[in-house]
Specification:
Blueprint (H helix, E strand, L loop, with lengths): L2 H9 L2 E4 L2 E4 L3 H12 L5 H8 L3 H10 L7
Antiparallel strand pairs: 1-2
């Protein structure tokens, strides 16, 4: 998937909480981001800007998947 396709794919899975829109990311997308970080394809900052993800969200994914290689 190209960047716009991934973004649109993820935006299709939205819900609201306290009148704020919260994005939901698919498991394969989360694992793709973690894999790209692991192989040093991009820095966390670059990926967050590229995919419009908060760095704290990526940190939560590292915790969720018990990853110790958080850059």
């Amino acid at each position: 998937m190209t960047r716009p396709e991934i973004r649109l794919h993820n935006l299709a899975q939205l819900c609201t909480k306290n009148d704020k829109v919260i994005g939901w990311y698919s498991e394969p997308f989360k694992l793709k981001i973690l894999a790209e970080l692991t192989i040093d394809k991009h820095t966390k900052s670059e990926l967050c800007k590229l995919y419009f993800i908060a760095p704290t969200t990526v940190n939560e994914w590292f915790k969720k998947y018990n990853r110790k290689d958080n850059p």
